[in-house]
Write a structure and sequence with these properties.
217 residues, TIM Barrel, 7 strands, 5-stranded parallel sheet
Length: 217
C-alpha cells in the first residue's frame, strides 16, 4: 500500500506540472518563451498527465488541447473524475443507490470519450472519491459531508460504483479520500480506523481481481 501511495503522490505532482505546461499548447503561448524550454523530469512509472474534472472536459478546446499535448509527447495519461467531492457520479450510472440519492449526473459519455483517448495512446485513470460524500451522508442521515469507512452501507455503495467503473474502459481506478475526516482525537480508535480503511482496500482487491489496476490516496 505504501508503494502505491508513493506512486500516487509522484503522479499527482507530475499531473499538475503536466497540466500547466500542456496549457501552453491550448492557449497558444509564444514557443520562444522560457516555459517552452522546460524539460520534464524523468518518471519512474512513465506517466505524465493531467487531471480533468467533468466540467473541464466539456469546455471547448480542452480535449483537443490534451490530444495535441499527447501528440507532442508532453503527456501520456489523464485522470478523470468518475465520482467527485460533491458525491456526484459524472456519468449515467446504473447503480440503484446512486439514482436513489440523485448522484447520477450523466454529464459525461465515457464510451466515445475513452475510445478517443485510448486511440491516442493515453493511459486512463478514473478518480473515485470515496468517503467524502455529501449526497450519501445526507441520504443516510449523517451530519456533515463524510461517511465512515466502517459503515457497511458506504463500503457496499463505493464497491458497487467501482465495479461499474471497471467496466467503462479505464486502465486504473484511483481511490481518493480513503480515510476518516481530519481532526479529533485519533489515538483511542486509531487501530479501528486503520482496520476499516485497509479492510475496504482488501475487499476492493478481492472483488476486482485482475480487472483493473487499483491505487489509493
Amino acid at each position: 500500500l505504501r508503494e502505491i501511495i508513493m506512486k500516487r503522490v509522484s503522479i499527482r505532482c507530475l499531473l499538475v506540472l503536466g497540466f500547466l505546461f500542456s496549457l501552453l499548447g491550448i492557449v497558444g503561448w509564444d514557443q520562444t518563451s522560457p516555459a517552452s524550454l522546460y524539460v520534464f523530469p524523468p518518471s519512474y512509472h512513465d506517466r505524465i498527465g493531467v487531471y480533468l474534472t467533468s466540467h473541464a472536459i466539456n469546455k471547448p478546446g480542452v480535449l483537443q488541447g490534451v490530444l495535441a499535448a499527447v501528440s507532442e509527447q508532453k503527456l501520456n495519461a489523464v485522470v478523470i473524475n468518475v465520482k467527485n467531492m460533491h458525491g456526484e457520479l459524472t456519468y449515467e450510472s446504473s447503480v440503484p443507490l446512486a439514482n436513489t440519492i440523485g448522484a447520477s449526473s450523466g454529464r459525461l459519455e465515457f464510451h466515445s470519450l475513452l475510445t478517443a483517448l485510448r486511440e491516442a495512446g493515453i493511459y486512463l485513470i478514473a478518480r473515485q472519491v470515496l468517503f467524502y460524500d455529501p449526497k450519501l451522508a445526507a441520504f443516510l442521515g449523517i451530519s456533515g459531508s463524510w461517511v465512515s469507512p466502517d459503515d457497511e452501507r458506504a463500503v457496499a455503495y463505493n464497491l458497487e460504483v467501482a465495479q461499474e467503473v471497471a467496466r467503462l474502459g479505464f486502465d486504473e481506478i484511483q481511490f481518493d479520500y480513503v480515510r476518516f475526516p481530519d481532526g479529533g482525537e485519533l489515538l483511542p480508535i486509531y487501530e479501528q480506523r486503520y482496520r476499516a480503511v485497509n479492510g475496504f482496500l482488501q475487499q476492493a482487491r478481492q472483488e476486482l481481481p485482475g480487472r483493473i489496476i487499483l491505487s489509493a490516496e
